[in-house]
Amino acid sequence: MIVGITGRLVRWNVESSVAWIESGGLSYEIFIPAFAQAWITENNIGEELKLFTYYHVTERQPTPLLIGFSSFAEREFFRKMIDVPDFGPVKAVRALTFPINEIAQWIEAGDRQSLRQLPGVGERLSQTLIANLQGKLADEAKIYAQERVDVPNALITNQLVEDAIEALTTLQYSQRESERLVMSAVRSDTELNNLEELLVYILENQAPT
């Protein structure tokens, strides 16, 4: 089984969510789940990437499917999701359009309405996801999707990131937008030593999407 690939990004098609990774003289076609598209889009063609992968092939689907993730945590979350009846790898690649921590929080909270935002997930499947996974995603619910990015500023801690996100949500930013703004700031070259400096930088320099 192929569990990871390190190689150059030679092609990325956002519409089909397919990346080509060249490694060891071979090029691999790797499907990228929707929640990881932003990560791979940040990388330029020719850059070297490390992907954690899930290899899927069955009698019903004999054509091999290779699915890539930016972190081991994402891969393990994906494996838990596809063990749910009627929620296989192909559906999961297209359906998981939100960060894994948000989806995990919805399942842990039994929030069927939020789960129905996922493409292909209706009332019945949202109930199935909750019935099969509630109580099993506590760790994933605490993960911020953008934590997979290496942060150059050693003074930025996970607690500071959490505090900044919480502060932005009190200013009426959505959870998702707050996470994006905070992680964009901490990836910058600016030295940010505390919560006040981090928030000032975000509010002065980061435009909401």
Feature tags:
209 residues, alpha+beta, OB fold (Dihydrolipoamide Acetyltransferase, E2P), Helicase, Ruva Protein, domain 3, 5-stranded antiparallel β-sheet, 10 helices, 5 strands, 17% strand
3D architecture notes:
By secondary structure, this protein is α+β, with helices and mostly antiparallel strands. Among the domains are: 4-69, OB fold (Dihydrolipoamide Acetyltransferase, E2P), CATH 2.40.50; 150-205, Helicase, Ruva Protein, domain 3, CATH 1.10.8. It is 42% helix and 17% strand. It has a 5-stranded antiparallel sheet with strand order 3-2-1-4-5, covered by helices on one side. A hairpin with a 2-residue loop joins strand 2 and strand 3. It is flat and about 55 Å long. It starts with a strand and ends with a helix. Mean pLDDT is 82; it is low at 145-152.
Summarize this, please?
Helices cover 42% and strands 17% of the residues. It has 209 residues and is of the alpha+beta class.
